[in-house]
Amino acid sequence: MAFINDQYHINQVIKGNTNAFSILVNQYKDLVFTLSYKMLKNKEEAEEVSQDTFVKVFNSLPKFKGESKFSTWIYTITYNTCLDRLKKVKKERSVLYIEDFSEHQVKAIEKVLSTVDENERNQKIQECLLLLPSEEAFLLTLYYFDDQSIEEIAKVIDCNSNNAKVKLFRSRKKLASILRERLEPEILAYYESERR
User: Fold this and answer.
1) Is 116 helix (H, G, I), strand (E, B) or coil?
2) Where are the beta strands (DSSP E) in the chain?
3) Torsion of CA 26, 31, 34, 36, to 10 degrees
């Protein structure tokens, strides 16, 4: 349904009805800002990148072929605009020490999170995402909050599904490391010791 509506508004903009673009902006502005903020970790920069993204979207609408969902296309433009901003600003990012996590440990931490109230879980994840490098925070936002599939994430970051899966797993391991420090130790110990 959203795809049909998006395509209708895209066609209207291409035909010269620029007011139709405001509908697309309203529909995607929160998503674009959230993803930008996850990568840039700065509200003002995220606002600027969001504006730049929509300028690029507007100028590139005639090039949108509908080969992927419109939202995936916007994710891609947002992602690339953020990367450009990061290169331009060249801020030093703190590097986190990440211990090696097995897939079982990552799943155990995710299981703990599933027992927590959804709002609390989302808040914990959001707090931890701010501690991750920009690109990884972006990937995890797509995965956890925007329910994007591996294939959709691969399109956004312009790689194949296997590479996207590896990047996502590494990002989840880093997130798990941070979450591990913040979760109740006794609850975590219970789930980590649990065998399937």
Assistant:
1) coil
2) none
3) -90
What is the distance between the alpha carbons of residues 184 and 196, in angstroms, rounded to a whole number? Answer: 22
- Domains along the chain? 2-89 (1.10.1740.10), 103-193 (1.10.10.10)
Query: Where does residue 118 fall: left (phi above 0), alpha (psi -120 to 50 degrees), or beta otherwise?
Result: alpha
Sequence-separated (6 or more) residues with CB below 8 Å from residue 194: 108, 111
pLDDT in tens for each of the 196 residues of the chain?
455 588 888 889 889 888 889 999 999 999 999 999 988 888 988 999 999 999 999 999 988 888 888 989 999 999 999 988 888 766 444 433 344 455 666 666 666 566 556 677 677 777 788 888 888 888 888 887 888 888 998 988 888 989 988 888 888 888 887 877 766 554 555 555 554 3
Q: Which of 117, 59, 120, 98 is nearest to 180 (CA)?
A: 98
Q: In which region does residue 158 sit, left (phi positive, over 0), alpha (psi from -120 to 50) or beta (all else)? A: left
